[in-house]
Inverse folding.
């Protein structure tokens, strides 16, 4: 699990550092296309969440009457690093506006920031804070998934197989009519989460191997209705690895641990650094050094946030128990 998270976080990290709107930043259109496809890490995260959330709820003995505690656990676990990253985006945006070459006036929209607290920006037609928009939208999607899962989890774990399949079918098929909601709401992305849910069923022994593989085939076709092939393949490969191969890769375990913090902070740093450095004709060799140095700096920043903020919050969240 941590290995896949590490791969996903690093892929999104380099996708944002190497694919920007700055003209000629890395020089090669081919490389720009390759790095852009590293955003597949987002869909890897969706598939992982599809698996790990029902797994955690099942292991914790969750029932709908524990909804309040479930949401408290999510808030304690995820919101402190998230709120810190919002403050970081605002601070770095203000610092950038002070530079003589800056052409953007700093403006603080308190109403917009308040909507960030409950991931409500899409519901009010507002964008995410500058520097966080590249990643915060996925947190909003994940939050909607947590809400739906917590409410319908008893149906997804029902003793009768037809109840489980019907619930999953209704959940996943909502994507067919929801392309206009992409980037804002959950329905377009339900096939990716459903891949993780069926993997959880397979892991738990509720479905056999062939039923599992057949469900993944159907969900792959459903996801391919609107999404590009590499995005679908990323989620499908994640589900298969979770289902059949869980051996950890030690070098990537560390990046898996800091993946949430790295995901939250890297986009804001990449946006500001690339926009600033692209003003100077240093040559593309220097640009690659900036990318490597900036990515390393993001890893160091994320490491500090993980040990100082995220890990204590995670440990405290794990201490909140459901009533059985």
């Amino acid at each position: 699990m941590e290995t896949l998270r590490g791969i996903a976080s690093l892929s999104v990290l380099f996708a944002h550092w190497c694919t920007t709107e700055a003209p000629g930043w890395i020089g090669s259109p081919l490389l720009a296309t390759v790095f852009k496809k590293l955003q597949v890490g987002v869909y890897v995260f969706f598939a992982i969440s599809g698996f790990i959330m029902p797994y955690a709820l099942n292991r914790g003995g969750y029932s709908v009457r524990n909804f309040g505690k479930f949401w408290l656990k999510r808030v304690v676990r995820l919101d402190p690093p998230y709120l810190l990253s919002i403050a970081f985006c605002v601070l770095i945006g203000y610092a950038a506006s002070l530079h003589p070459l800056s052409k953007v006036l700093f403006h603080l929209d308190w109403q917009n920031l308040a909507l960030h607290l409950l991931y409500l920006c899409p519901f009010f037609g507002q964008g995410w804070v500058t520097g966080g928009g590249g990643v915060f939208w996925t947190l909003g999607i994940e939050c909607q998934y947590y809400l739906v899962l917590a409410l319908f989890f008893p149906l997804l774990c029902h003793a009768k197989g037809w109840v489980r399949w019907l619930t999953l079918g209704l959940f996943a098929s909502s994507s067919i009519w929801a392309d206009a909601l992409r980037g804002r709401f959950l329905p377009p992305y339900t096939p990716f989460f459903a891949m993780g849910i069926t993997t959880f069923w397979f892991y738990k022994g509720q479905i056999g191997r062939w039923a599992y593989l057949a469900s993944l085939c159907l969900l792959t076709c459903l996801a391919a209705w609107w999404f590009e092939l590499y995005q679908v393949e990323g989620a499908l490969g994640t589900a298969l690895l979770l289902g059949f191969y869980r051996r950890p890769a030690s070098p990537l375990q560390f990046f898996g641990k800091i993946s949430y913090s790295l995901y939250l902070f890297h986009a804001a740093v990449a946006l500001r650094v690339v926009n600033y450095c692209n003003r100077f004709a240093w040559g593309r060799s220097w640009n690659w050094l900036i990318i490597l140095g900036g990515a390393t700096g993001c890893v160091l920043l994320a490491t500090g946030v993980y040990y100082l903020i995220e890990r204590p919050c995670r440990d405290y969240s794990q201490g909140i128990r459901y009533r059985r």
